Structures are given as C-alpha cells and as structure tokens.
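DM between two lab members

TW: hey, do you still have the Cobalt-precorrin-6A reductase entry open?
JB: yeah, one sec
JB: this one, 246 aa:
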Amino acid sequence: MSSHVLVLGGTAEARALAAALAERPGVRVTTSLAGRTARPGALDGDVRVGGFGGAGGLAGWLREQDVDALVDATHPFAESITANAARAAAETGVPAVVLRRPGWRPGPGDHWHPVPSLDAAAGLLPGLGRRVLLTTGRLGLASFAHLTRLHFVVRSVDPPGPPMPPDTHVLLARGPFTVPGETALLREHRIDVLVTKDSGGAATAAKLTAARDLGLPVVVVRRPPLPDGVTAVPDVEGVLERLGLG
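TW: and the structure you got?
JB:
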C-alpha cells in the first residue's frame, strides 16, 4: 500500500529525511520549501515552493493531495510554520511528527548569555563589545538597526535587506564551517562578541568553539517553545520509527 508523506523542509535533516523516504518502496515524498533561500539544492522526491496560506491552506493541501503523514522538519526558529503545521494536522487528523536537531549546550570555558529574543540580544550588546559577528540570518536585522555605535559583521546565506545597522559588513557564506576558519574570521574582523540563534547541529557549531578558544562572549537566542501538545524527535531514524518505516 502506497503512502504520501509531506516534509516541511529547508534543513539538512529534511534533506536527509527526503532521501531516506524516497528509498522506501511505495512511499511518495513531497518536500515543501518556503522559498527564502535562492539556491536550496537538489532534493529526492517531489518539491513544492511557497507558502500554503496559513493553517487552513495547509489543511486543504493535505486533503487535496491525500497526504498520509506530515513531518515538520523546518528550522527550529520557524515558529509560525510549526504552529500552522500543528493546527493543520489536528484539523485533518493527519499524523504529524516534528523533527528537531538537539540544541547546543554550553561547556567548560564558554561565556554564554542566553536571551529569549533578538531584541533582548540587541539590548545586551553595548555592554559586551563594539565589534559584533551576527549569525542570526538575514531576517530580523531590524532588531539591531538602532545600534549606531557598534560595528556588525553579518553572515548569511543570501543578501540581507534593510533595515539593518548603519555600520555593517556583509559576508555571504553557507556552512559547514571549521574551527580554524571561524577562528581566523573572528581574528580578522577583531570581533568582540558573537550573536547566534540556538540552531543546533554540527554545520555551524564551529563558531562556538572558536569563540570559546578566544575567550569571547556569545549571546545565544533561545529557541521558541513548541506548540502545546507537540513533541519532537531528534533525528531521521526517530521519524522513520514514528511513521512505521524504520
């Protein structure tokens, strides 16, 4: 008996899951991308790009496309998408799984400052340093736009747009990154403080090691909570087991 799995993607875990599902006989996998990244790369199975129009639109798509299971494998900070997926799954009765890689944890020698939001991160910066490496993505830079006395190095996959801090140098780069490379970057730009979201995963974790080795403070934006009643599994194997395809 065939089954149709919709993966809300955009992460390395979503890509790995699509590849694993495509190998299962009788399984059709469709990966949905928001379309915010210009070059998302090849994916196994079918691909759709663009939003659904909220929870109601997603619920309609699940019905129209005879989806048997929904996997939310979006970025840990894609809060609205995760909420819409939970509501659409509840409305349609389609079984849903959330795939979230584990978050980072501080270790000995780390100087972390956990905060609940980008605005809170911006509020801490004047007391921590003047030269900032900002690795929170190209969206949300408005939270830092009022910090006119700080120099920002903003790293993102795609070019950011305004509003952003007036003294900003943009670096376009995609992980994975290495500890030597991140250390060289921090030294070259004379960075005083690093700002990051708790994205988790190995691809972008090298900056944390480099900051620790250089004794730099790190402002870490905590992940938003999952919707009520929603739990997550940490890896592709856990999703396959939940779907009965392990």
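TW: got it. The mean pLDDT is 93. The CA atoms of residues 31 and 47 lie 5 Å apart.
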